[in-house]
Specification:
Elements (H helix, E strand, L loop, with lengths): L4 H8 L10 H14 L11 H9 L6 H16 L23 E4 L2 E6 L12 E6 L7 H11 L20 H14 L10 H13 L4 H7 L13
Antiparallel strand pairs: 1-2, 2-3
Helix pairs in contact: 4-5, 4-7
Length: 230
């Protein structure tokens, strides 16, 4: 991946790509591809069954547990990576999700994301629909309970907190996820952040949502969405 930058930088300077001219490097890369392959192994899919088992092990009277549960549901229904709503590094109001970015609607909540992997210069906003659905997997119900439990929190502060002023970080989310999966007896070795995005896309497909609509919901601009549907 780092070597791919070298041809790009040379092309920007109108210079020839140096890699094909390097005999040792050229055949080293060929050997690496032959040994490891070029296809990426997909992560496991988080399913509604997984979510139900996670929910059964949480205490939703706890701010920390409820924030974690909200992060799971936002990632699943929004076809997001949990890192989109959990904090990495220090909280930056211009980059991370704030409480004021979650807006109540008649059908649930609308979450506005201003910074993601594909939105890094605030060139647009991503609007995530979190609707009311029947049952305990309802994201709107979980968010309503969380907002009530944390009422009085700073509107310009982090959306998800683990305490009165401590944001839910991606490190905390990941550790808690694997801890709960182990408690539930679920193999967590291949469940990553992308597992929620993959799970949400697969679930939408299973309930009959057309692929073109799934692409819009998950902001895919290519047919890469097909790799996420299990």
């Amino acid at each position: 991946q780092y070597l791919n930058i070298i041809p790009h930088m040379h092309k920007l300077c109108d210079l020839p790509d140096p890699i094909p001219q390097d005999y040792q490097l050229k055949y080293l890369l060929m050997g690496v591809k032959r040994e490891l392959g070029t296809a990426q192994s997909p992560v496991d899919t988080v399913t509604p069954s997984h979510l139900l088992r996670i929910r059964s092990l949480l205490d939703c009277s706890s701010i920390a547990d409820l924030a974690f549960w909200c992060a799971c549901l936002i990632a699943f229904y929004g076809l997001l990576r949990p890192g989109n709503v959990a904090i990495t590094g220090r909280f930056e109001p211009s980059k991370h999700v704030r409480r004021i970015d979650l807006m109540p609607c008649s059908w649930g909540y609308l979450l506005c994301l201003r910074h993601t992997k594909t939105i890094q210069f605030r060139e647009r906003e991503l609007h995530v629909i979190l609707p009311h659905v029947n049952g305990v997997l309802c994201p709107a119900t979980a968010l309503q309970a969380y907002l009530h439990l944390t009422r009085g929190a700073d509107l310009l502060g982090p959306l998800l907190l683990t305490g009165t002023a401590s944001p839910l970080t991606y490190t905390i989310f990941r550790q808690k996820l694997h801890s709960i999966l182990n408690q539930a007896g679920i193999d967590d070795s291949n469940i990553k952040g992308h597992s929620f995005r993959r799970g949400g896309a697969t679930w939408l497909s299973h309930i009959g949502v057309p692929v073109e609509q799934i692409k819009v919901i998950g902001y895919w601009s290519s047919d890469a969405v097909q790799r996420y549907i299990d």
